[in-house]
Amino acid sequence: MNIREAIRERHSVRQYKAEPISQEHREKLADLISEVNSESGLHIQIIYDEPACLDSVLARFSKFRNAENYIAIVGDKSLSDLHERAGYFGEKIVIAAQMMGLNTCWIGGSFSRRKCEAAIGEGEKLVCIIAIGYGLNEGFKHRSKPFAKLCNIPEEEMPVWFKAGMIAAMMAPTALNMQEFFVELQGEEALITTEGGSMAHIDLGIVKYNFEAASGHKCI
Ligand SMILES: Cc1cc2nc3c(=O)[nH]c(=O)nc-3n(C[C@H](O)[C@H](O)[C@H](O)COP(=O)(O)O)c2cc1C
């Protein structure tokens, strides 16, 4: 599975098999997370076999089942782009996990922050978590806003790379599927912005990662 396929096949999965993540996958995830932490300066951690964080009333209301593993996205509170950075590098892990045959779900609200087992240092913040495991299903394709609401050029005028980036951006997970982002073509680059709050800034990082991975062009 290549990156574009992984972006297309990824959907939020909230019900998991009661099957621990294999040793082989744990080793790959440890290498991946340590690489992403060095690149991003974040303090991302993975927690296995701990059901409490996703066993709250809120989590059950959101239909989480057997969600016993999660990735905690933790970073320095003083970073001005902490939320966007969390989104960008978290999505890098999500897409790599999809390529390994694992399923995920970004979670900003429906989990217990108190029961999260991540180590959160002085001056750090737990931005959100990502559930991870072997899905009971592959999730469902979300509805997307049309191109015209998400970018400034008509589909027929898009360069090939830009269209590939847009399609991947439209497939990106966003909180409540709000898709509060806007993409503008500026020369050979794409400018992606949002006017939303902190959750929309996590989404912005996620969307930028998808756009760059599928188009091969850096976003500004
Ligand atoms: C930043 C962020 C926060 C999210 N928080 C939650 C959450 O608290 N509970 C939940 O069930 N889903 C949550 N989601 C998942 C979204 O509802 C989901 O990504 C969106 O509906 C699109 O569906 P898809 O991921 O299947 O493409 C979150 C997604 C993102 C990106």
Task: Explain the overall architecture.
The strands form two sheets. The protein has a four-stranded antiparallel beta sheet with strand order 1-2-4-3. Strands 5-6 form a two-stranded antiparallel sheet. It is an alpha+beta fold and 220 residues long. It starts with a helix and ends in a 5-residue tail after the last helix. It has two domains: 3-133, NADH Oxidase; 147-215, 3-Layer(aba) Sandwich (NADH Oxidase). The chain has seven helices and six strands. Helix 1 packs across helix 4 (82-100), helix 2 packs antiparallel against helix 4 and helix 4 (82-100) packs across helix 7 (198-215). The chain has helices spanning 3-9, 23-40, 57-61, 82-100, 147-150, 160-170, 198-215, and strands spanning 45-47, 70-76, 103-107, 124-133, 182-186, 189-193. The protein binds flavin mononucleotide.
Provide a brief overview of the structure.
By secondary structure, the chain is α+β, with helices and mostly antiparallel strands. Helix content is 37%, strand content 16%. It folds into two domains: 3-133, NADH Oxidase (3-Layer(aba) Sandwich), CATH 3.40.109; 147-215, NADH Oxidase (3-Layer(aba) Sandwich).
